[in-house]
């Protein structure tokens, strides 16, 4: 059916899952901390929606991908 | 023996109606010699027929038809056809028209080359029969000899005429209890463990099954082995493009050996030899590399295992030992799971990177055991399409499913499922299954995005909730609440800013102290100038904020700011002047002056915080 084939290699090598997981989760957690510090130190009328959204998005990107690699590193593949 | 009466009826029926099949098969081929060797040594019987045939017609022939009576086809695990050089030939089930189609299963064997008229050819066909040995007696004591009966047709069953044939049955042991029928040209050789018939030189018509009591041959012999059968095997295979293929396999095992007479007692079981017809262990050979090998069963019967990688590192051998032996008529079930790194089973097309090929074993890892039903379900990653599958042998039923797994939010995983009934594989058979599918693009990033979304939603809700007050308000209450919120913000900022002012003030006082010990005028002047600049900047900022506060507090705070700065400057001057003048004279008066000033500043600060606090409380 298929003549020219090569072994499939995933986007990220399996051995890097653990490292990536904790690094990304750490960055994500720091961003989350920044977000919550920002939320409690600024008043309702002086919060910038853009800033909130950008920090929240960055934090969820790091936490999300970090969490994904955490699941992969413990052997839960999807 | 329980099958024989039924078999007899079918066989008689066949003999009567064979003529109608001639057209489909063609009467050109004649089998000149056939030598059948049936090996009943193992639980799965192998029946090998070495055939030479001649084309006596006028046209070339490239097909050879292989017939199996239905009762035998029901437990035929595999048919393997080879030509004279041992090359495998393609054998597929063939739907024959005519009266035989109900009682006979036909296979079409495609020859590698056409057999020209007047030419001969040879092929060898091997059938693996599971469930073909029947224990006799049906029930035995735990330390009795285990005996089985094998029965088969005496004559070669074929849609062709046969000129000459032999039959040889190899038994498991030398204890051949009996065999029948006893004919002129039949013999049994105990030392070679064989029962032989032939040659039969009288030409037999197609579908010939013998006459009278010469239809069937049966051999009764001792069998010191269990007769394991897998009633049902379910294999679930899950492909992940993060580098893993997960296998989960569940097995239902049955020992078809003679049942136990009476109840099971551990005493005879432990004091005498291990019953040879009980299953002591189960061996699985799983292709290497793999990781995370895991097994479990419902009742915890299987709790001992050994695992070893083969010397050539091609497979892992797993031995499972049940706590109880699996005696005749007993069942066992267990589940096996393991992960295979994708690099060894998943491949990509070099020129088209979206095309993937999954190449996995077609058979389950408990090979050399006959399985009655094998269900395989292959779950591909969500978003894969254009799925094509190539089997190494025919399967009975194919269907498609959708499976919802982890983080499958927008679309499920396509599952390709099929069953193969009557299933048997030897170690040597080619058993790779190939699934080709398209996968790539957005589908690869769908799952990370779902997880990111999962984290982002709480943030978004938090941001949103910060902008809402979910209360039913009275008229004018909104403005009031907003004002209070504003005041709170200002107060918190004032506190922060006052802290900044205090730092600047402390800097000035430190400079004053240092001027006292080492009076360098320019430094002191610079410190004063910088304090002036910084404190004015911050105080101005604070004053801008104070404007938004209620009138009485506003004035109080302005007064405070003004006076506290004055007092601080005064204090600094006092401290600096004190030392610069003379270290000894008027020390006490000056000291008390600075103390008074310090106290005054503290009082002022307390007032400031009290005002802020009272404002906060009011809010």
TrEMBL record, chain A:
It comes from the Eukaryota. The chain crosses the membrane at residues 20-41, 53-77. Its main location: membrane. GO terms for cellular component: oligosaccharyltransferase complex. Pfam families: Ost5 (PF05251). It is found in: Membrane. It is a multi-pass membrane protein. Keywords: Membrane, Transmembrane, Transmembrane helix. One of its GO terms (biological process) is protein N-linked glycosylation. PANTHER family: TRANSMEMBRANE PROTEIN 258. Subunit of the oligosaccharyl transferase (OST) complex that catalyzes the initial transfer of a defined glycan (Glc(3)Man(9)GlcNAc(2) in eukaryotes) from the lipid carrier dolichol-pyrophosphate to an asparagine residue within an Asn-X-Ser/Thr consensus motif in nascent polypeptide chains, the first step in protein N-glycosylation. N-glycosylation occurs cotranslationally and the complex associates with the Sec61 complex at the channel-forming translocon complex that mediates protein translocation across the endoplasmic reticulum (ER). All subunits are required for a maximal enzyme activity. Component of the oligosaccharyltransferase (OST) complex. Belongs to the OST5 family. This is Dolichyl-diphosphooligosaccharide-protein glycosyltransferase subunit OST5. It comes from Vitrella brassicaformis (strain CCMP3155).
TrEMBL record, chain B:
One of its GO terms (cellular component) is oligosaccharyltransferase complex. GO terms for biological process: protein N-linked glycosylation via asparagine. It is a single-pass type I membrane protein. Residues 1-19 form the signal peptide. Pathway: Protein modification; protein glycosylation. The chain crosses the membrane at residues 449-470. Residues 576-596 are annotated as: Disordered. Subunit of the oligosaccharyl transferase (OST) complex that catalyzes the initial transfer of a defined glycan (Glc(3)Man(9)GlcNAc(2) in eukaryotes) from the lipid carrier dolichol-pyrophosphate to an asparagine residue within an Asn-X-Ser/Thr consensus motif in nascent polypeptide chains, the first step in protein N-glycosylation. N-glycosylation occurs cotranslationally and the complex associates with the Sec61 complex at the channel-forming translocon complex that mediates protein translocation across the endoplasmic reticulum (ER). All subunits are required for a maximal enzyme activity. Component of the oligosaccharyltransferase (OST) complex. Belongs to the OST1 family. This is Dolichyl-diphosphooligosaccharide--protein glycosyltransferase subunit 1.
């Amino acid at each position: 059916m298929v003549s020219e084939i090569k072994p499939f290699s995933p986007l990220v090598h399996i051995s890097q899952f653990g490292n990536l997981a904790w690094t990304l989760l750490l960055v994500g957690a720091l961003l989350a901390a920044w977000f919550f510090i920002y939320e409690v130190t600024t008043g309702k009328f002086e919060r910038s929606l853009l800033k909130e959204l950008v920090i929240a998005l960055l934090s969820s990107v790091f936490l999300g991908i970090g969490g994904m690699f955490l699941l992969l590193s413990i052997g839960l593949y999807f | 023996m329980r099958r024989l009466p039924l078999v007899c009826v079918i066989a008689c029926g066949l003999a009567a109606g064979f003529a109608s099949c001639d057209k489909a098969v063609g009467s050109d081929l004649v089998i000149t010699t056939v030598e059948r060797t049936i090996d009943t040594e193992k639980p799965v019987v192998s029946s090998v027929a070495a055939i030479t045939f001649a084309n006596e017609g006028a046209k070339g022939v490239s097909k050879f038809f292989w017939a199996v009576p239905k009762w035998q086809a029901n437990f035929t695990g595999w048919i393997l056809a080879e030509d004279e050089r041992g090359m495998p030939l393609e054998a597929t089930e063939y739907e024959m028209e005519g009266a035989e189609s109900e009682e006979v299963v036909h296979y079409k064997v495609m020859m590698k080359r056409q057999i020209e008229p007047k030419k001969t050819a040879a092929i060898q066909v091997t059938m693996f029969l599971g469930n073909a040995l029947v224990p006799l007696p049906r029930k035995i004591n735990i330390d009795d000899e285990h005996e089985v009966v094998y029965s088969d047709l005496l004559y070669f069953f074929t849609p062709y005429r046969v000129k000459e044939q032999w039959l040889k049955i190899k038994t498991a042991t030398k204890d051949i209890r009996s065999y029948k029928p006893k004919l002129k040209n039949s013999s049994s050789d105990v030392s070679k463990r064989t029962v032989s018939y032939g040659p039969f030189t009288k030409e037999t018509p197609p579908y010939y099954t013998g006459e009278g009591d010469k239809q069937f041959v049966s051999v009764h012999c001792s069998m010191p082995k269990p007769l394991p059968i897998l009633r049902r095997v379910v294999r679930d295979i899950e492909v992940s493009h993060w580098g893993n293929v997960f296998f989960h396999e569940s097995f239902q095992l049955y020992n078809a050996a003679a049942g136990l007479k009476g109840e099971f007692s551990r005493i005879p079981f432990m004091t005498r030899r291990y019953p040879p017809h009980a299953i002591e262990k189960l061996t699985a050979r799983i292709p290497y590399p793999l990781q995370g090998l895991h097994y479990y069963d419902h009742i915890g019967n299987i709790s001992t295992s050994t695992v070893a990688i083969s010397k050539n590192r091609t497979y892992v051998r797993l031995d499972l030992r049940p706590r109880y032996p699996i005696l005749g008529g007993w069942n066992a079930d267990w589940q096996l799971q393991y992960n295979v790194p994708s690099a060894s089973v998943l491949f990509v097309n070099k020129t088209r990177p979206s095309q993937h090929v999954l190449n996995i074993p077609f058979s389950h890892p408990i090979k050399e055991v006959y399985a009655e039903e094998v269900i395989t379900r292959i779950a591909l990653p969500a978003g894969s399409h254009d799925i094509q599958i190539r089997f190494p042998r025919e399967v009975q039923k194919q269907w498609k499913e959708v499976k919802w797994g982890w983080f499958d939010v927008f679309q499920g995983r396509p599952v390709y499922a099929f069953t193969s009934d009557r299933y048997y594989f030897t170690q040597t058979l080619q058993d790779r299954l190939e699934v080709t599918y398209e996968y790539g693009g957005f589908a690869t990033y769908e799952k990370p995005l779902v997880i990111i979304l999962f984290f982002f939603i709480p943030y978004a809700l938090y941001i949103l909730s910060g902008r809402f007050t979910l209360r039913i308000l009275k008229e004018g209450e909104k403005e009031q609440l907003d004002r209070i919120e504003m005041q709170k913000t200002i107060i918190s900022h004032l506190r922060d800013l006052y802290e900044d002012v205090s730092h600047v003030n402390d800097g000035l006082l430190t400079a004053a102290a240092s001027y006292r010990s080492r009076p360098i005028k320019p430094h002191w002047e610079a410190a004063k100038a910088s304090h002036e600049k910084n404190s004015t900047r911050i105080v101005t900022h604070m004053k801008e904020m104070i404007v938004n506060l209620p009138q009485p507090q506003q004035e109080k705070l302005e007064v405070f700011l003004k006076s506290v700065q004055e007092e601080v400057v005064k204090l600094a001057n006092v401290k600096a002047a004190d030392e610069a003048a003379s270290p000894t004279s008027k020390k006490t008066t000056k000291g008390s002056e600075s103390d008074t000033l310090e106290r005054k500043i503290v009082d002022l600060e307390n007032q400031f915080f009290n005002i802020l606090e009272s404002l906060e409380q009011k809010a």
